[in-house]
């Protein structure tokens, strides 16, 4: 069951004419600047578990789906434009994908609106059958797990095994979880005053626009569509322009699972065009966005400027991870390390402000730098590699610029600090110590493999400093003292607090931000509220009795 | 006949093909399905009874023995409880399993049952006598839906954090109760098994189940599927046996934490007593009924006649929720009676493996004789026999669809549960009168009202003392909706979210904190 490591049977199901062939693998293994970062040699796989039990990427994977998915059909863009999709590990062009713009969004909204009409198959369907469709979709994702994980690694540069074991597992579990909710979204009957009978219906909101980021493309896709569909909405989803490929494969599976036409529409495109068209659309009832805080503000404004569509936002973070001296040090170092470096540091959850208690500070910094230095960079498809490339040149440049600011503002560079492997998008795992709260690297979201370690002395001080940010997404606390754990977890202004763990997420558990980290919650039962309108029906009756 | 149930059972959209059945698509059954399992299922293994005894299970359509089945008694119950207790041990694989994986196991069980729909339906019909078309398109699909529904709850059964006064942090954990004894009846063998297993397993309990001695075969086949899909040993144990021996051993066991029983009110009393004289195990009961079905003069006549027929005659009348007191408003009484008699006379009684058959045999000779006795009492006490009233075949336990008119509230057939194809039609004048008469029974399981008037519908549905009220429909079951009785009809609710409560202990954990903040 959980974490079963057997490779799923790869069945080629949805055949369509293959487009551009994506070349994979053959990354040149030019020695990096950082001598500790050895290229992985699969024959010396000391880090990698036994090869036979490990899933392997699909070799020479062909990209099958490159068009816009509307009304369960593949469409070319109205403008005739396409956009290039690159493999960030090699810079190679993987394929070109149809680029959606305003006109395509209009088409998709029409289709989603028709699918949502009163009396439509989707509206008349038993809730349990909506759940069954989501379960079927989960089964199909499980069947195509290797292909999707390979596609994800190629398109986003994330480690293949992470894509397989983390992203795809979470995708399947999310779909199953919400499959189960579909017929459990219960209204209430309410004992109102007077001779009335009152009940509530939890109705779907309608056409939902969803805009997702490039850091967990397929998982974010599932997080968005699963609760929306389980509540009975229809969806127009725009994947990130950097990573549209797994979303398009999912579109094919959605059709195969048997969702009626128009229920899910997938539109690859850019934010300022397609994304903006969704956010401003007068016939979209709700928008959900995951991405930067800067764009989150635009989305909220667009909703205000247009039809007051409901808005949920999952935005940035600058998450404190607080390590007390009484914790298990080695474990805390390891958790803080993976809490930051996971997914090339490209997590809104990244624990990017590590507050370490004075008495263990030096030891913690030393061990953290050691860990960072031992990270293996390279081809994300190869087992044993821990860190792939950043997603694109823009992110790469931004991260390096912030690293430079850290050096300039006086933080101590413990390791890393520059690019790795010339002419690529890799960045050395970087650790800064002696970081002070006013430095840019302590205030701005870096979204890269750059760890900031700060020193603190008292509980009250660290609570105050941890909260001194306009973000409020996640936080970690490491301590064996139950009082400290409960005090700090109550005091932190963050949507998730992890005690003696980090990034411990599950589909049952709500996820979202305080303050400028967002609005609303995803996952768990809480997410259902974001996709339902409550209707109170009151009926006059002749005589009320308890 | 099956319209209501079918329309709930068959998804209306073509997108969902695998779970779709239509009458035309029902495969031709084998009337002699092979029996694969006839032993006790303990700890995921097949075992003979400690006593080595066995009992025959009978095909009620012919009266012939299908096979011998191992007969569990007290010693076997002890073995099963030990296995269930071990599976429930703190730190066991079952206790440590992610809730979502418990759900996945239940989903897989549903998939396996769906895969074997045709075989299970054949076996059910052979052992119980219900028409194959019904087994195939009602019982088995409802089993699949019930298990899928409960599967979804496994990781959604949430405790709370509670803002108590003082410097404390307080939360609840919803923990499984432990080893649950479950005793199920013969009228819906597969479905009752699913109703019992679904919530118990979704919430993490272990189970010792005794199946009815009349109908042990499908439950044992499902046991093999439970093992196949990967439930750990000891989580589910299935014991065919008799009530006074195996059933009593479960109800009186000192190491069974909870007992759930579906069956007669008479035995329900015994179960509750046994709990009181042993370890105060939690008790839930789904018992008998004498459910009123009220037809107002403004109802759609054709629909009301058909639904009332279905409400009583479905499953050979062997339903605890059967609409066995049909109250008809005086102005439409004669027409309703005439049409109901016509409908009953056209009811097809016969070989349950024949696709045209609407009504098979009663489950066994004891029930058969008991029902004939009630029919005699109806005649004796002055009710007017409108049709039927006798045996319908020269072998097997078939009874003619029977209707009594001019039934008075004091007659035995208006007070006692007949559990057979015998319909009582009573006349009433006013709303207030009918509510009072409908409630004048020790039972309170189900009720229905047929009317177009929204006020009457609300008045009656509020006024009736029953766990389920159907308005302009009857026998509408969904795994999502709770089911259970007021008064002597039972204790607790099955299905829906409510069903989970009966398999949960709530633990309140309170932690002292240095300082509380909102």
From TrEMBL, chain A:
Q: What is its EC number?
A: 1.2.1.3
Q: Which PROSITE patterns match?
A: ALDEHYDE_DEHYDR_CYS, ALDEHYDE_DEHYDR_GLU
Q: What is this protein called?
A: aldehyde dehydrogenase (NAD(+))
Question: Is this entry keyworded Cytoplasm?
Answer: no
Q: Which family does it belong to?
A: Belongs to the aldehyde dehydrogenase family.
Q: Supply the source organism for this entry.
A: Oncorhynchus kisutch (Coho salmon)
Annotated Gene Ontology MF terms? aldehyde dehydrogenase (NAD+) activity
Coiled-coil zones = none
The entry's keywords: NAD, Oxidoreductase
The biased composition feature labelled Basic and acidic residues covers 37-46
Q: Spell out the residue ranges making up region: Disordered.
A: 1-56
The gene coding this protein: ALDH1A1
- Aldehyde dehydrogenase domain location, by residue? 74-537
Q: Where is the composition biased (Polar residues)?
A: 1-36
Matching entries from CDD domains are given as: ALDH_F1AB_F2_RALDH1
Cite the active-site annotation: 314
Annotated SUPFAM superfamilies: ALDH-like
């Amino acid at each position: 069951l959980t974490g079963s490591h057997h490779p799923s049977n790869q069945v080629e199901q949805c055949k369509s004419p293959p487009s551009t062939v994506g070349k994979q693998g053959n990354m040149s293994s030019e020695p990096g600047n950082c001598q500790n970062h050895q290229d992985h040699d699969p024959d010396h796989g000391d880090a990698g578990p036994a090869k036979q039990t490990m899933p392997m990427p699909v070799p020479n994977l062909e990209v099958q789906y490159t068009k816009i998915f509307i009304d369960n059909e593949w469409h070319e863009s109205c403008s005739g434009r396409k956009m290039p999709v690159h493999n960030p590990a090699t810079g190679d062009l993987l394929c070109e994908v149809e680029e959606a713009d305003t006109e395509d969004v209009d088409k998709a909204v029409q289709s989603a609106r028709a699918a949502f009409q009163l009396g439509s198959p989707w509206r008349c369907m038993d809730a349990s059958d909506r759940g069954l469709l989501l379960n079927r979709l989960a089964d199909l994702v499980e069947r195509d797990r290797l292909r999707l994980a390979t596609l994800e690694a190629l398109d986003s540069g994330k480690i293949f095994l992470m894509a397989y074991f983390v992203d795809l597992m979470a995708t399947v579990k999310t779909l199953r979880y919400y499959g189960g909710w579909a017929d459990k979204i219960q209204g209430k009957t309410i004992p109102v005053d007077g001779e009335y009978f009152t009940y509530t219906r939890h109705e779907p909101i309608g056409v939902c626009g969803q805009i997702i980021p490039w850091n967990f493309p397929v998982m974010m896709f599932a997080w968005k569509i699963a609760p929306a569909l389980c509540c009975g909405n229809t969806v127009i989803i725009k994947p990130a322009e950097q990573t549209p490929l797994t979303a398009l494969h999912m579109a094919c599976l959605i059709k195969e699972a048997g969702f009626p036409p128009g229920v899910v529409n997938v539109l690859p495109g850019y934010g300022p065009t397609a994304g903006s068209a969704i956010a401003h659309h007068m016939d979209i009832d709700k928008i959900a966005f995951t991405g930067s805080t800067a764009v989150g503000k635009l989305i909220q404004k667009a909703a205000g400027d247009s039809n007051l569509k409901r808005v949920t936002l999952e935005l940035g973070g600058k998450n404190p991870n607080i390590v007390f001296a009484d914790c298990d040090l080695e474990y805390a170092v390891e958790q803080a390390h993976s809490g930051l470096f996971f997914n090339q540091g490209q997590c809104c959850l990244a624990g990017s402000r590590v507050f370490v208690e004075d008495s263990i500070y030096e030891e913690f910094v030393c061990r953290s730098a050691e860990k960072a230095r031992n990270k293996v960079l390279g081809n994300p498809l190869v087992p044993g590699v821990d860190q792939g490339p950043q997603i694109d040149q823009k992110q790469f440049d931004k991260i390096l610029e912030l690293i430079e600011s850290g050096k300039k503002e006086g933080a101590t560079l413990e390791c890393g600090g520059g690019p790795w492997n010339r002419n690529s998008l890799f960045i050395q795992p970087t650790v800064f110590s002696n970081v002070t709260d006013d430095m840019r690297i302590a205030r701005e979201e870096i979204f890269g493999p750059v760890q900031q370690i700060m020193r603190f002395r008292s509980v009250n001080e660290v609570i105050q400093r941890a909260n001194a940010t306009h973000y409020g997404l996640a936080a970690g606390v490491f301590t064996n003292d139950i009082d400290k754990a409960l005090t700090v977890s109550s005091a932190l202004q963050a949507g998730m607090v992890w005690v003696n763990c980090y990034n411990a997420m599950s589909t049952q558990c709500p996820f979202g931000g305080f303050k400028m980290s967002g609005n609303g919650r995803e996952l768990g039962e809480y997410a259902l509220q974001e996709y339902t309108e409550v209707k109170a029906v009151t009926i006059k009756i002749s005589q009320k009795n308890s | 006949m099956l319209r209501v149930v079918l329309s709930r059972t068959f998804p209306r959209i073509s997108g969902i093909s695998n779970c779709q059945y239509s009458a035309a698509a029902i495969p031709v059954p084998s009337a002699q399905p092979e029996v694969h399992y006839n032993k006790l299922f303990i700890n995921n293994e097949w075992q003979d009874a400690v006593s080595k005894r066995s009992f025959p299970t009978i095909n009620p359509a012919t009266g012939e023995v299908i096979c011998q089945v191992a007969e569990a008694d007290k010693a076997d119950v002890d073995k099963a409880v030990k296995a269930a207790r071990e599976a429930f041990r703190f730190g066991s694989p079952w206790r440590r399993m992610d809730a979502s994986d418990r759900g996945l196991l239940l989903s897989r069980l549903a998939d396996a049952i769906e895969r074997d729909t045709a075989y299970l339906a054949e076996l059910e019909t052979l052992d119980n006598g219900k028409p194959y078309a019904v087994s195939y398109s009602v019982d088995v699909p409802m089993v699949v839906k019930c298990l899928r529904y409960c599967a979804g709850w496994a990781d959604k059964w949430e405790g709370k954090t509670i803002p108590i006064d003082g410097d404390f942090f307080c939360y609840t954990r919803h923990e499984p109760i432990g080893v649950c004894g479950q005793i199920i009846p013969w009228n819906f063998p597969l479905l009752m098994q699913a109703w019992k297993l679904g919530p118990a397993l979704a919430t993490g309990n272990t189970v010792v189940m005794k199946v009815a001695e009349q109908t042990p075969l499908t439950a044992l086949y499902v046991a093999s599927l439970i093992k196949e899909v990967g439930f750990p040993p000891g989580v589910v144990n299935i014991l065919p046996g008799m009530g006074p021996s195996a059933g009593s051993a479960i109800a009186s066991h000192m190491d069974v934490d909870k007992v759930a029983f579906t069956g007669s009110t008479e035995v329900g009393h015994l179960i509750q007593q046994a709990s009181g004289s042993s370890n105060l195990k939690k008790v839930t009961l789904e018992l008998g009924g004498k459910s009123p079905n009220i037809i107002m003069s403004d109802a759609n006549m054709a629909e009301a006649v058909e639904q009332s027929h279905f409400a009583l005659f479905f499953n050979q009348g062997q339903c605890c929720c059967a609409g066995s007191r049909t109250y008809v408003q005086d102005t439409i009484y004669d027409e309703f009676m005439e049409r109901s008699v016509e409908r009953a006379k056209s009811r097809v009684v016969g070989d349950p493996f024949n696709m045209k058959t609407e009504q098979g045999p009663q489950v066994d000779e004891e029930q058969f004789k008991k029902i004939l006795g009630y029919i005699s009492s109806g005649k004796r006490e002055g009710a007017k026999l409108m049709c039927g009233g006798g045996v319908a075949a020269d072998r097997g336990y078939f009874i003619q669809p029977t209707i009594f008119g001019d039934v008075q509230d004091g007659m035995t057939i208006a007070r006692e549960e007949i559990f057979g194809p015998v319909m009582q039609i009573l006349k009433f004048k006013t709303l207030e009168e009918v509510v009072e008469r409908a409630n004048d029974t020790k039972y309170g399981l189900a009720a229905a009202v047929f009317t177009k008037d929204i006020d009457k519908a609300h008045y009656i549905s509020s006024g009736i003392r029953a766990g389920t009220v159907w308005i302009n429909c009857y026998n509408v079951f969904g795994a999502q909706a709770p089911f259970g009785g007021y008064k002597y009809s039972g204790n607790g609710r099955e299905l829906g979210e409510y069903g989970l409560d009966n398999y949960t202990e709530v633990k309140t954990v309170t932690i002292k904190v240095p300082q509380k903040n909102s």
